[in-house]
């Protein structure tokens, strides 16, 4: 897989200037007057909508020597899709989809998968993705987890002032108990946050936090007309939890998490 | 505190905050994936550093806040229900703090290592 990046450029002589970078799929009804913004590959690669029936793929020509993967490529992918979600419904493609020419996009993406794509567009219609991430303030999780735990207080008192060697069993017991208390606390906090957010979402994905400090990392699919309600709910949570948790609230995003499926490429 | 965003609406987020969504979600047709993995790997390493930096900012913000402000003791359920906070706990927690720090192995050991690192702001300048 790692060598792939090189061979796709250097090894494949058939890579033509007609390679198309594909961003996402929108209803053809929304494709009219798609603004010509710069795509992956810079200003020369202007984005346009390739229409087939009721579907349209957002594409831009990819320079033949270009393998997407740079920071500016990721930004371009993101910018194009954020513009798309501002304008209406979009199925975001994962970063790095490149097809060899318009016919391939027509046949092997829009044609072959038409029913599935139409169904997904219908499901996503009128919705956006919002991300809510809650981060503990320094020490907040630990303090919250151990408060009122008599056994932790007792063990800690036993350990205090004694050498590590002579109090080893107590230290291990204390550490185990604290770790368990922290896990329980985090799970409880996550659940309470979810209880507040879930009623506002049509669908929801809870992702791993990726850090000890993360209480919640949730992706919400919400109706556009519930945005105000969610904004308020998140603002209220932020106020109520100030000093304990800091909330990062991001969106509106294209529904990346709710379009995470793999389609069959079809035979050559 | 300074860093909390509860007065504002949602933000667009940094590239790093949405990196995983862009790289690992969305519709995929395997046969048509063409990415330079080298570039991506560099970016994801960057992302980890920046996420760690955001944590660092939050930690500093909190540390500064703690000098003047009461240390909150309640958890999410209590805060949401606006329950009374129990100030008696605080003293006990403070004395426990030193001992307990070393047991919270990961957070205690990783944090000092991350501190000296220059927080790298995502360079999102327009081309």
Please outline what is shown here:
The complex is a heterodimer of chains A (268) and B (127). Chain A contains 8 helices and 11 strands.
Q: Explain this structure to me?
A:
The complex is a heterodimer of chains A (268) and B (127). Chain A is of the alpha+beta class and 268 residues long. Helix content of chain A is 40%, strand content 25%. Chain A has eight helices and eleven strands. Chain A has helices at 4-11, 71-87, 102-111, 114-124, 140-146, 150-159, 168-197, 227-241; strands spanning 19-27, 38-39, 42-46, 48-52, 55-61, 91-92, 98-100, 127-136, 203-206, 214-223, 245-253. In chain A, strands 1, 4, 5, 6 and 7 form a five-stranded antiparallel β-sheet that branches. In chain A, a hairpin with a 2-residue loop joins strand 2 and strand 3 (42-46). Chain A starts with a helix and ends in a 15-residue tail after the last strand. Chain B is an all-alpha fold. In chain B, 56% of the residues lie in helices and 0% in strands. Chain B contains five helices and no strands. The longest helix of chain B has 32 residues, at 37-68. Classes of the chains: A alpha+beta (268), B mainly alpha (127). At the A-B interface, helix 1, strand 1, helix 2, strand 6 and strand 8 of A face helix 1, helix 2, helix 3, helix 4 and helix 5 of B.
